[in-house]
């Protein structure tokens, strides 16, 4: 009898999986609820453990050995890592960025610029708007992701297809980084408001809006159809107008109240003396604005 052999302990395998995979799930799929199948097979001799998105295969002969069973969790992590092109951990001051790139065709120059933008902008946003925001952020690229970029938890996901085609659009980091700083949680204010603030912050704190030809669109009569609910840049321009023409700091206070879950329709009246519809009507009558965009030297 071989004493080193152990009975296949599926409870232990499950526990190891739950301890390992969720931490990597954010990097492994843009929705973290991807289903994973784990198969234990005993047909192959040399094979031990493989992992690809959604599937893990383990050799039962291998895992039945005491030492392998004990090291299963570490092996699982290693196997998951193999799906990625690179993992870089960058620390500057008390901020950290882990960059997981899963596409070998992702332009490294763009990757570097995203990293630089993070260290330039994110600490400023955190210290200005919400010093409880994490200092430990994860950037992930995923070829399976069909959007442009999105933020959740401490993670920002980028589409490499989009970024390779729009290499100067590095202030995506500013917009998505602001989403991490916002951290309003569920049920605090409408989506148009969250997105309008993120683009308002991109306008104010972005490092190269000129380089990416990112501008706040001039007011047109068509904007009156959905007014401030147009969201993103149309709303951001309206917010900049409030900042310049009505009262500076209103939008920043709105951001605070959203975070405190004290925001409601009356907040606009409390802060500016006007309802948001009244503010919009004033804006629509006289939308002239002096706008200044950030830009950086490019070689
Ligand atoms: Zn957004």
UniProtKB/TrEMBL annotation:
It comes from the Bacteria. Pfam families: BSP. This is Peptidase. The lineage of its organism: Bacteria, Pseudomonadati, Bacteroidota, Sphingobacteriia, Sphingobacteriales. InterPro entries: Uncharacterised_BSP (IPR007541).
């Amino acid at each position: 009898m071989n004493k080193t052999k152990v009975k296949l302990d599926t409870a232990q395998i499950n526990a190891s999986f739950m301890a390992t995979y969720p931490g990597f799930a954010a990097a492994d799929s843009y929705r973290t609820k991807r289903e994973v199948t784990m198969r234990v097979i005993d047909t192959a001799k040399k094979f031990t453990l493989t992992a690809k998105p959604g599937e893990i295969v383990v050799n039962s002969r291998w895992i039945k050995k005491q030492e392998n069973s004990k090291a299963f969790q570490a092996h699982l992590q290693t196997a998951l890592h193999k799906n990625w092109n690179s993992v870089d951990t960058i620390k500057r001051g008390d901020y950290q960025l882990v960059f997981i790139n899963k596409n070998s065709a992702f332009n490294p120059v763009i990757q570097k610029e995203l990293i630089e933008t993070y260290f330039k902008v994110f600490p400023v946003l955190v210290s200005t708007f919400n010093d409880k925001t994490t200092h430990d952020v994860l950037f992930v690229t995923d070829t399976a992701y069909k959007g442009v970029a999105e933020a959740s938890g401490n993670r920002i996901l980028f589409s490499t297809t989009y970024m390779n085609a729009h290499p100067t659009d590095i202030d995506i980091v500013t917009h998505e980084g602001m989403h991490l700083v916002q951290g309003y949680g569920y049920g605090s204010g409408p989506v148009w408001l969250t997105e309008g603030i993120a683009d308002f912050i991109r306008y104010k704190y972005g490092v190269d809006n000129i380089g990416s030809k990112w501008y706040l669109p001039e007011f047109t009569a068509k904007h009156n159809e959905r007014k401030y609910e147009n969201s993103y840049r149309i709303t951001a321009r309206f917010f900049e107008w409030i900042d310049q023409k009505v009262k500076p700091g209103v939008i920043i206070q709105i951001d605070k109240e959203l975070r405190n879950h004290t925001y409601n329709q009356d907040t606009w009246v409390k802060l500016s003396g006007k309802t948001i519809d009244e503010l919009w009507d004033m804006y629509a009558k006289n939308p002239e604005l002096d706008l200044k965009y950030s830009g950086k030297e490019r070689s």
